[in-house]
Design goal:
Nucleotidyltransferase, domain 5; alpha/beta; binds 5'-O-[(R)-(carboxyoxy)(hydroxy)phosphoryl]adenosine; single chain; 2 domains; 11 helices; 343 residues; five-stranded mixed β-sheet; binds zinc ion
């Protein structure tokens, strides 16, 4: 079964064709990163305008690269949310209209659950449930127990910023470019991760997260180093590298500490990392080392393109949702965009 997946929840216009939930036939991503670099972050109206400009050419390119026509597409999956409402509208409306015109089933996919399926993309192997998933991006930071396809229990989430958002904001403070995750990872290689003592939030719920205090602590350290009215571009290379390395290590230890607590309680058969932050090499290595004694498989998406926003994860998730309840999806006519769409 071939599904066309459409993703426009933030700053990527992304469309893919995926066969049977794992075989990615094409995955086209029109990234807006170069546009948002100028403002150091995503401006929703600018993102929305770009989606409108790109969505039709990206769909055409995706079908071409998959060497497929509409007759060979069996269903359309799109994202009603969560995400930026002005961005979600384009993908939702396009998916709904195409489903109507081409007479295909329409599958709503929650963006966060979509990220989980980045691990299924181009990976046709046996997955053993339950799976403990840490899915962390710019817009969300969740710890989820996946008992089966379509059966997800939210164990914990961030009370404020996601780790990805913290990467982006700290990078801006340090004069590094957007998106902050890859920029911090790069300069952290030359830094000492023990340079500063940064805080880890203590919360009542064992699996929840909070990163806004950490971000403020970085601001105070930068001000102590360079003065209250500092200019990020004046910070020394050494300071930026040391702060990046310490920040990356602190975020990673915080994320993996909750993963470990949840592992102890739920004893899942696999642990998955997903979302934009799962591209982080330090996080991947630290997770593998932490869980080595437990001999539990650690998986993260096979390629970076399946970590950050993409259409393939949406098509893959759509496939498994559709198999669970075909009759339900045959009746859906519209995707109603919602910034806080829950699962
Ligand atoms: O999944 P995604 O493309 O968009 C959202 O759903 O938000 O994730 C983007 C986020 C950004 O915050 C970016 O800084 C972060 O993922 N990210 C990384 C890395 N690559 C992307 N964070 C840490 N290390 C990376 N290598
Ligand atoms: Zn995302």
């Amino acid at each position: 079964m071939r599904i066309l997946g459409i993703e426009t929840s933030c700053d990527e216009t992304a469309v893919a064709v995926v066969e049977d939930g794992h075989k990615v036939l094409s995955n086209v991503i029109a990234s807006q990163i170069n546009i948002h670099k100028k403002t150091g972050g995503v401006v929703p109206e600018v993102a929305a305008r770009e989606h409108i400009l790109k969505i039709i050419p990206v769909i055409e390119q995706t079908l071409k690269e998959a060497n497929t026509g509409w007759n060979n597409i069996d269903a359309i999956a799109g994202v009603p949310g969560p995400g930026l409402i002005s961005a979600l509208i384009t993908g939702s409306l396009t998916a709904s209209t195409l489903a109507l015109i081409k007479k295909k089933p329409l599958i709503p996919v929650n963006h966060i659950l979509g990220h989980i399926y980045g691990n299924w993309c181009n990976r046709n192997e046996d997955f053993k449930f339950p799976i403990l998933v840490l899915t962390v991006s710019g817009g969300h930071n969740d710890l989820i127990l996946m008992k089966d396809h379509g059966s997800f229990e939210l164990l914990g989430q961030s009370h404020d910023d996601s780790a990805g958002e913290a990467f982006d904001k700290v990078a801006k403070l340090l004069g590094l470019e957007y998106p902050g995750g890859p920029a911090i990872q790069k300069v952290a290689k030359n830094g000492d991760p023990e340079s500063f003592l940064l805080p880890k939030a203590k919360l009542d719920s064992p699996y929840d997260f909070s990163f806004s205090g950490l971000k403020t602590a970085v601001l105070y350290e930068v001000q102590a180093h360079a003065g209250k009215d500092f200019n990020p571009t004046d910070l020394s290379k050494e300071f930026v590298a040391n702060m990046s390395a310490t920040f990356q290590k602190t975020v990673t230890e915080t994320l993996v500490a909750n993963l470990l607590k949840a592992y102890d309680t739920y004893r899942p058969k696999e642990i998955h990392l997903a979302g934009g932050v799962s591209a982080n090499l330090f996080l991947r290595k630290y997770t593998q080392e932490t869980f080595k004694p437990y001999k539990v498989p650690i998986k993260y998406p096979k390629s970076i393109e399946f970590c950050t926003d993409n259409g393939a994860m949406i098509a893959s998730c759509g496939y498994f949702m559709y198999l669970k309840n075909k009759e339900r999806y045959k009746k859906i006519r519209n995707l109603i965009p919602s910034a806080n769409f829950t699962f």
